[in-house]
Amino acid sequence: MTPLPAGTLTFLFTDIEGSTRLWQEHPDAMPTVLARHDALARDAIGTPGDGHLFKHTGDGVCAAFADARAAVDAAIAFQRALAAASWEPAPRPQVRIALDSGAAQSRDGDYFGQTLNRAARVLAAAAGGQIVATETTVTLATGTETIDLGLHRLRDLGDPVRLHQIVAAGLERTFPPLRTLERFRHSLPVLRSSFVGREAELERLRGLLSEKRLLTVTGVGGCGKTRLALALASQEIERFPDGAFFVDLAAITDAELVWSAVAASLGGGAPGGGGLSPRDVVLGRLSDTKSLVLLDNCEHVLDACADIASTLLDRPGAVAVVATSREPLGVEGEQVFRVPSLAVPGEDDDPTRAEAVRLFVERATAVDARFVLTPAVVPVVVEICRRLDGIPLAIELAAARVRHLSPTEIARRLDDRFRLLTGGPRGARQRQQTLAAALDWSYQLLAERERTLLRRCAVFVDGFSLAAAEGVCAGDGLDRNDIVDALGALVDKSLVALHPAEHRYRLLETIRLYAEDRLIEAAEAATVRTRHAAWFQAADASFQPGSMAPCATPDAGNLRAARAWAHETADGTGVARLTAALFRRRSAWDPAWREERAWCATALEYEDLAPAVRADMLAVASFLDITAGEWSSAIDRARQAIALASDPGEGLAGAAYIPLAIGLMVSDPDAADQIIDEGVQHIRRARAPLYPPRALSSFRIGVALMRGDAARAAALAPQHEGSAGPRAPTLGLAFALHLLGDHAAAEREAGQPMDVFMSGGGEHARHLLLALTAAARGRTDDARRELGTAVAIARRYRHPLTLNDCVIVSGAIAAIEGRLERASTLLAAVADRVSVRSPEIWAVYLDYRRRVREGLDAATVRRCREEGRSMDLERAIDAELVGSLNA
Question: What whole-number distance in Å separates Cα of residue 218 and Cα of residue 496?
């Protein structure tokens, strides 16, 4: 990729005026028009020699120039080329061009920052055929002929900017006035920082305002309600020829003064003059007008604002009201829009395009021009934005700290965020000077029962149900019957989020930490946490898994928090039961398995565990030992669990036959056969087994595979019990079919839904099977993709033996492709059956080792074995993924 120009740059933005209308009127011709437009733009931008076209915007382009004069010349050349070209049958597109100069951040072939934001605002102000440049660009582009258009406030509501029209031979000179705020009557304030992101929300609000006359923008303190509402007003100001009026209610403490504040914002004399009340003044000035009134910060004078809104909507005219508040006004005809947090990047997203990251970078650059979003800094900034829940105020306060702290130091201090995030800009409202002050404002406006509920909800992690809120938070002054209404009020006031599809409530982590501080201040923390732990233990007592597959639970965070509190209060039984609860709901191959092993060890250290509870813990520990590849420990613990169980086959202790069978099939296949028979008998007699008999009987297929007998494994498959039909699908059968040469049948078997214990020990094994069948059927690209997916799972879960499995399958694929020496080396790197995770993979090893040895002489096999013993497995698998599969 060609390096982007850097330093002080001049940006050229273009846009076809009225492109939507042109598409409607000339749908067939517009593709040709756009293609010609783009070609002319490329020619003009490339002509000066140092222009770099870095983005197409659909009906325009964006380019960067190291030299301002070259940018001006390109803009002139482009307008001349547009005028000279033939555009029949469509009309010639009227292209507006904006030029601005300054610093910008660059990443992945794109630019971002305040200079580009300003260029976009200048472009929106220009007319088709016009070239408009900022004073900065004109100063840098010496010798440019211009018309001084004067100072203008752009739609970003910042300080006025001096703009110039570029003039040259062959260009039009006369245009309508610029579309800036000076053309309109308004009292919108000047903002000292740029508006970042919120494109989707702004577009949605513009659509709502075209349909509704009362629009209330709600959200948690610091989420950017005011900035979004002001951006909406500036974008829609042309729709309100009689004016747009901003009413700041933050400092109003007396509801009787709200009408006066509205009257003052309208201008034209002091309210109350001539004996008229402020209400009469407002109604008189807005009567029969098409105006916009923006009521900002309504939450503490809600009734008065509701009165004003309903009164204005009832009067003649077309007055629209936009209100910002932490809760709705509750007026008939009101449209509520909840402002979400800024978007933070997902795993596959470009972080530099995420709104939260863009805001951090822009504010950090504003306080320290040396700040650069380097690749090393990106993940730290993403972490900061994610931990701050995408709340704009919190992100801005964090970014301001780059004057004294590195991003890494800021991230490290976020556990004490309310101490860290202080020092907002001078002149900001007092409650916006610190994150704590912003939340204090919301908290103090709550009714007492709402405060009580909010702070008690701090004990929940990752959300909670209504039943959990009633069970944990009620009592000690908060009636259970009040929970529903109080919770609804907290949702209305944007302090609790409701996810209707999941029927769950959630606090943003920043609000949860704030509420937790209030819980500690109220001396309720121990009591509420004890109720929280007890409630989730009781809820687990009635839990019944729906199948052999562990069920994903939204309450995993709550179970972990309850367990931590049980350990803190020396409740060993609680630690054990909650660890068992987490195990039943999550897969043993989950990335959290290492942490769960440690908790098993902690639970087993408690000497006062009842035998049944200890048996459950030993069973869980045995499953997790299998995950770690510690076969001997798994066998011992499983035997202890079964011995302690009052009724072998029941519950978790009965399920211990599964890790016992797995461990034995690796170390002693004959003993595994006996244990499977014994376990199936007990599970069949059990009243409440955790898993059905087929979960254990299916391991007979694994025993056959561990012996290298694929034919026996395939013959056994129809004999084990199925839940729907004659049998349930198993990945063991799929591997057996592959080894027997029926690759199509193997793929069909692997493609069926499987319970977890039928799936060969993890999702990675399914992808390894599909890699083998794809290679055997000549689909090299598919084989590489499936192997890569399995490797990614192995590395993400960090299980000790999964990468070994991937190396064995890589060796098998090399053998299929005829690379026998490479196959022999890879297979020799994993030469012991206790070093694989499953009998399926051991069967693959045995089969392909035999095939390779049949094709190589003994000396070559010995040399490959020596090379394999010293092989770096990570590098070996990377080499297979990158190159060999395409060989």
Answer: 12
